[in-house]
Amino acid sequence: MNNLKRIKKISRNFHLMFSVLLVVVPLYYVIYWAFINYFPETLITVNVGSNPLIPSPLSIGLRLIGFLISLLPLSALIYGLINIRKLFSFYQKGVIFSFEHVNIFKRTSKSLILWVFLSIFYESAKSILFSMGNPPGQRTVSIGFSSPEITTLVVAGIVFVIAWVMDEGRIITEEQHLTV
Q1: Which of 76, 65, 88, 86 is nearest to 25 (CA)?
Q2: Stated pTM of the model
């Protein structure tokens, strides 16, 4: 019983943390695109090639396009955060093993996979936006698939397998309860 109390307490903290992230992460995207012209180039070119930036500040139109494109991976990320937050709300209430847990794990896995592919698209679109004002021959399109994306896909696969195992365990438990 002591473990359940600790699970509830820790889950309450994680639920709060994911609630804060649901506000902070979208706010970060808004601030990033609203003030991109004022950030140092090293902060902007973290995931982009060495010479992609246009020599002048991004126009409001390009910043708006960039922000709208950023909503794609952001929506997948928010969906994943909502699911994880919901999982911890169940743990906070002491509900440890249910059919809804399986669905949450499956949805989280799908959101991770979607986030990877939408992030690749977003980073590629960002490289186009940042080099759009460069003269011909100096414009870039950067499409990247590296360790972080592979790691995220592996984690998504593991989460999906965990959901599958949990579902099998749930089915066996229900069958045992129904056996007289």
Answers
A1: 76
A2: 0.83
